Amino acid sequence: MTSAAQDHEQQVYPPSAAFTATANAGPELQAAADADRLAFWDTQARRLDWASPWSEVLDWSDAPVAKWFVGGELNVAYNCVDRHVLAGNGDRVAIHFEGEPGDTRSLTYNDLLAEVSKAANTFTELGLVAGDRVAIYMPMIPEAIVAMLACARLGLTHSVVFGGFSSHALRSRIDDAQAKLLVTVDGQWRRGAPAPLKAAADEAVTGAESIQHVLVVKRTGIDVEWTEGRDLWWHETVEKASDQHTAQPFDAEHPLFILYTSGTTGKPKGIIHTSGGYLTQASYTHHNVFDHKPGTDVYWCTADIGWVTGHTYIVYGPLSNGVTQVVYEGTPNSPNEHRHFEIIEKYGVSIYYTAPTLIRTFMKWGRAIPDAHDLSSIRLLGSVGEPINPEAWRWYREVIGANSAPIVDTWWQTETGAIMISPLPGVTATKPGSAMAPLPGISAKIVDDEAHELGHGGNGYLVLDQPWPAMLRGIWGDMDRYQQTYWSRYAEQGWYFAGDGAKYDEDGALWVLGRVDDVMNVSGHRISTSEVESALVSHPAVAEAAVVGAADETTGQGIVAFVILRENVENTGDQLVKDLRDHVAVEISPIAKPRQISVVPELPKTRSGKIMRRLLRDVAEGRELGDTSTLVDPAVFDAIRGLR
Ligand code: WTA
């Protein structure tokens, strides 16, 4: 890089005096956290309403399973709904819902309280009691949020399964958590047409012994199959139930939800989150990182509730802070590429939180589209899910943020529960592409294999060296895997291994460099290479498969697969590739479909039989091959390349 380019890369964007003057966050946060970290979290927990106090902020004696706010009791839904009503804000809009076909609904906090109470009464009538699990398989409609909050209200543990996942994926999650109730819809709107969802739900629950009822919201009005006794319509049950319900408090460590995420093996992990610590950090980060001002701001997080971002930054963080937010059901280009900007303009969105992959898509569509709209309401922009490249960062700030809105690049994970590393708007001078620094109260290190801390400039592994309130409490049904996955790499030090590479630059700004394990990041979605490999080898034509994430301009990474066919299987070319891609969609989800599949005669393996994905990535990205000296047969690449 030339020094001019380097200067450009290192350009710093200090906060404006005007923003700083009214910012929620100030330097005192870091000072307080530095002075006494646990006292700092004790203070933050008081953002919430507790039914009974805690005796200890953190009990780490059973590490790596933490107990935060020991003995404290609260109701999460009460904190997200009732208390705003009790404080006199019942008429404030909680949710501006924008349906894909153009239908709209606004729910105030009074409305939300009535809806959540009705759903809670129905769930109770169905015989569900605290500790039971409920699966939620729904598009982005208000009932999905109501269902989550009704679970929270009753101490039921929800497991939200992304509506884009297949029936197979849903079934394995229902079985793993032994869910008793499934909440779903008849169909969902996708690009102007209704797409069935109950059909997939039916397939998933056939033979699923734990499921007692399927509760169905009528969203599109399409025909559905009906199983009497098991299936119930939302409008015939929830909508007719009493809207009076008194929330009971639960222990701070009561499990709030399970959310499945991809790891390095084929089987998704059910990440467990609990109540008091999770809500504390969700609320604290939403308030300070997004500079959210209740009653004034209009907030929009474009995630889906099927992912952790939807849990923490659509449901729990924002609602605990009395937000007014937009919830949009559809895709950004339905009916055309103006949709997001129309929504921003229509509702006066002031805080907009999305993923780099969408920003890059907007760039591709061209700035004439956002430029055709009045986006002057925007005062803060957020990014999440993958590293944001400096070019996209600058475009985001200039085109969407009128060259003035601060950008918060927020690093966190399903496992961390809430934002961990991010600039604080009004406090931190930012650099395009850098997540800057751990938040006050959070501690992170960048280390090498031997646990030595790296100085500025060295690439290493990101570890979290202190427990944090929203941390996962384990993997559902598999505490050994919890220990093994996150805590064995730096067992001696007792550090959490995040699975990401990172570095500090010369000025001490933190850069997250991407996954260092076999997890791919496609459009901000976590997908494991081995999950796609197992889906491929479950097809009768495939003997062996190797999957890698190759750099992709828009989606961050794209899935590239190499397969060896079984003996006597004919390679039908495009037809076979299509069959295999469809098969992956059925086994996992359309989002896991490989971008490219090559049929190869052999896969590059080490002498110990390990597939060398690093070399396959070189091939997929069109690079010169790296070190092939440990390969059994380097000539295998001539064959692989010849085919591409
Ligand atoms: C990646 C999403 C760079 C990272 C909240 C992490 C990021 C994984 C960022 C977690 C960011 C998330 N910069 N990388 N700002 N945010 N990641 O569990 O690799 O879906 O480990 O949680 O996304 O993905 P998950």
TrEMBL record:
Binding site for CoA: 190-193, 309, 333, 523
Domain of life: Bacteria
N6-acetyllysine, modified sites: 610
Post-translational modification: Acetylated. Deacetylation by the SIR2-homolog deacetylase activates the enzyme.
Cofactor: Mg(2+)
Entry-linked InterPro entries: Ac_CoA_lig, ACAS_N, AMP-bd_C, AMP-bd_C_sf, AMP-binding_CS, AMP-dep_synth/lig_dom, ANL_N_sf
EC number: 6.2.1.1
Cited PROSITE patterns: AMP_BINDING
SUPFAM superfamilies according to UniProt: Acetyl-CoA synthetase-like
Gene3D superfamilies linked to this entry: 3.30.300.30, N-terminal domain of ligase-like
Reactions catalysed: acetate + ATP + CoA = acetyl-CoA + AMP + diphosphate
Keyword set includes Chloroplast: no
Function: Catalyzes the conversion of acetate into acetyl-CoA (AcCoA), an essential intermediate at the junction of anabolic and catabolic pathways. AcsA undergoes a two-step reaction. In the first half reaction, AcsA combines acetate with ATP to form acetyl-adenylate (AcAMP) intermediate. In the second half reaction, it can then transfer the acetyl group from AcAMP to the sulfhydryl group of CoA, forming the product AcCoA.
Family designation: Belongs to the ATP-dependent AMP-binding enzyme family.
Protein name, as recorded: Acetyl-coenzyme A synthetase
Organism per entry: Rhodococcus zopfii
The encoding gene: acs
